[in-house]
Amino acid sequence: MTPKMWELAFQIYCGGNLHLWELKSTELASFNYSPKRSKFVSHVDSNELLTDFRKSGLKVAEMGLEFHETMICSLGYEGKLSQLYSFISSIWGVDETGKLISNEVKLKLNDSKYPTMNTIIALFSSIAYNGHFFDAMKFVSEFQKSYEVIGTNALDKSFFDKIFTWCDLSTKFEQDRALSYFLRQTKVKTSGKSTTLSEISNDVNFDYEGYLEFIKKLKQERNLAFQQLWEIYQQDEIEFNNHIYSIYFKYLKEGIVDNIETKYYDYLSALLKQYHLYHTTPESFNKRTNVEFEPLNEKHQSVYILYQAALKELIEIKGREMYIDQCQPLIDEWAIDNEMNKQLTSWFQNEKLEQFKRLREKKRQEFMINLNKEEDEEDSLLNLM
Fold this sequence. Notes:
- This protein is an all-alpha fold.
- The protein has helices at residues 3-13, 46-55, 65-77, 81-92, 117-128, 133-147, 153-171, 175-185, 197-200, 208-236, 242-253, 260-278, 299-320, 327-334, 338-384.
């Protein structure tokens, strides 16, 4: 086979194309995704195919950059991290800790294997795929610093798309799975069925404080990753990516971030900036029906939908926190146009207002009940004295 055919073989049979990777549930979160349309192509171990490759008389060192990127993806998909780190070190001189060994082993700019943004995307995805998101970021930082890799806007957009995707998947956790994982790690025996926190709390062997610290750490890692990424993404002013904004919005909706209202205002401000960047009025020259222009990119519509959904979430937060009187002024100030103001006002007045009032009354009653209990306990204590 030709070198290009070997490259395709690794992509098809060994996971060398990251766009064909299957995503499976982790110990902390459940998700499944399979982009392959056919299951008839069975996986072949990359080392087996590499043996056949060498028998053909070809050498890995003589292959081009795209083949090396394919090998990175194959090793990452198969979970062969030790082999992957050795491969990266042997070609680009970056060790397993994500540091350049020395300038002497650094490739020259005219070398055919000098890394590009596609190389960084491949190695980042391969390491993050195995649950090592923060280690993957170290490699990205070192390659960009040592090799001064600069991408086009399209490649930067693809790069951030991958980073946000793996940030979400690598740091995602579900309470029930996190509890099961913690119980296994601390060797607490259960009945075998799904155990809830309320059920296991009475077990003397269960380290409740340790579990709370574990959950706190998971939240901190997820918050740190998302907030740092979002800040970098906004600073670089990459072209609007609906997938990235949607991932970040879903993260905000989890409610685990500190200063959540501030984060929502920042998110709305970022979306508003994008909306004004892409929005054109019906009277715009580009939209005149008698002028033969190509159809405009309607990105502003995607921004509009996300913006309205995020503003609804912020109103929900205000209502749940008993700041009902702030909801309508919030709509009046932040609605993009009259139509959004009209829709949100109707939604708030007809669907949410009474719900928020009932919630407020419920909390008031609970407060009074607890207050009366405290007064009764104080009276009992005084009687004893």
